[in-house]
UniProtKB/TrEMBL annotation:
The keyword Hydrolase does not apply. Keywords: Nucleus. This is Zinc finger LSD1-type domain-containing protein. NCBIfam families: LSD1. Its main location: nucleus. It is found in: Nucleus. InterPro entries: LSD1-like, Multihaem_cyt_sf, Znf_LSD1. Residues 28-52, 67-91, 105-129 form the Zinc finger LSD1-type domain. GO terms for cellular component: nucleus. SUPFAM superfamilies: Multiheme cytochromes.
Length: 145
């Protein structure tokens, strides 16, 4: 006599994200697409190119910039001084948010912000080009205080 087979138990759905829904993101090391992954994952497989990208350790702060050569979104560990693009191999300078300076426009006195190392900054209001340097930045700092 045949033995009746019991139905398989219904599969228990495995949540893709933790119960609080926390997710993070990183850029695929293969095709450079933005990947979302649940917190706690150690690696992510890209659905587009199937490349497995390692997730940085927890607590590692990440930053983003656009490549100056090909405009690809790059992600890197915050604090790095430069980032090489894996697409066009351009080496991009990675500036922290605190690596900017302020100076007042030499014509209309609008407060301008520029990256350290710039030799001048053009005002978006009056189009005047203000030369910048240590002496100009120092003067602007004293004027603000």
């Amino acid at each position: 006599m045949p033995v009746p087979l019991a139905p398989y138990p219904a599969p228990v759905p495995v949540p893709l994200t933790p119960s609080n829904g926390a997710q993070s993101q990183l850029v695929c090391s293969g095709c450079r697409n933005l990947l979302l992954y649940p917190l706690g994952a150690t690696s992510v497989c890209c659905a587009v190119c199937n490349v497995v990208t390692a997730v940085p350790p927890p607590g590692t702060e990440m930053a983003q910039l656009l490549c100056g050569g090909c405009h690809t979104l790059l992600m890197y560990i915050r604090g790095a001084t430069s980032v090489q693009c894996s697409c066009c191999h351009t080496i991009n300078l990675a500036l922290d948010a605190n690596q900017v300076a302020h100076v007042n426009c030499g014509n209309c006195h609008m407060l301008l912000m520029y990256q350290y190392g710039a030799s001048s900054v053009k005002c978006a209001v009056c189009n005047f080009v203000t030369p910048v340097g240590v002496t100009h930045a120092t003067i602007a700092q004293k004027l603000r205080n």
